[in-house]
Amino acid sequence: MPSSEKTDLYTRLTRLPMSQLQEVCFLYGLDERFYPNNPNKVELSKILIQYAESLEHISESYCPDLHHVLEAVLAKHSLHKRKTYWIAGVFSVLLLSFVAFWVWLHLELRHTAQQALDLGDYSKAVAAYDDWLSAVPLDYSARQQRHKAELLQEVFETAEEFNAGDTFERVQTMLEKSPDDAHLLTALANMALNAEQVQPAKNHYQRAVALKPNLARAQYGLGSILLFEGQFAQAETALSAAVALMPWQVEYRSNLATAYLLQDKFAQAQEELRQAQSLDADFLRLSLERAVAYLWQGEVESAEQALQNLTRRLQQSELLEMPKNQASWVFPALAQQQWVVLNEWADKRAYVYRSLSAIGALQNDTRLQQVYAEQADQQMSSRQADIESLVKQDIGKARNALAR
Fold first, then answer.
1. Residue 282 per-residue DSSP state
2. In the chain, what are the domain boundaries?
3. Model-level pTM?
4. pLDDT tens track for 79-98
5. C or N: which end of the chain has fewer Cβ atoms within 10 Å?
6. Phi, psi dihedrals of residue 374, rounded to the nearest 5°
């Protein structure tokens, strides 16, 4: 064996792990009896090379090539290593994919819960936090948020009286721990408004909006207060934000339409009322609001048609029994700088009939004027003076529009 070949072979053999070197010896035919117990790699490599040289002296044609045996062992272990790496790689990818999916799923649950809170869908928020906590039961923050969602559900969906039960105290307690929580501030504002504490409610709404502008309930609450205070442009800003966040809320659109109407933005007012009616055709107050908007715009025939349709629907008992229709109807009385609140059906009907009677007078339609004047009288409304003031205002707006 040439000296250079021997040196190269020796170098390669000594670099092998002991187990692979022993495997080369075994495959080459070097029995363990020919080398001492527990040899090191240097000793065993020298013995193997000497053994190979001795075989060459006996018969070169018979002697196996030690290089080939070495390459075979290296190839075998290289393939095994690649398999091991491949299996480990596949396992790592699967594990990382599972972890990534798990993290994404639960972050999505938290995002869903937070979004539901912002949109006032508290039952959905509670359900989403329950799903999250079933996987991460020790998440204290999520548990606190779930408790808050339950409390908000109680405030906005069940508690109608200020300080109902212990609700007010629980909101206050949570606010002491989280004084900048916009949801809790909105709940406090809502309870204050129910107790007719308008200025505290306004303050709470303003803080909530400043902290979280995308909180629709806060924007709507603030916009409604500003509307009733006569700050129509500011009310429009807040109510527009509320409608943009929750476009399916009919009350939001109704109040925004009023803000537009009081600024003589008739086209925008009509569009909001049209959208609101498309969302809820059974909300009777919208028909009256739309008729008023038509009058203020000078579209008297459209107003008459809307009111005529409303009179027919006022005969349907199933509509009158709906809670949304039994709620108060509120309209601005600009001359008195106040809002007229109509609670009884006699008052609501009287406003509709007086309006139709006044339209009859405006159009010189004596029959229309007399028929609906009589029907209005039959209602025996206790708010006659306020209703006549509203009708006078509406007809005055119509005359001014027609004169332009």
1. T
2. 3-105, 281-404
3. 0.72
4. 555 555 556 666 666 666 66
5. C
6. -65, -40
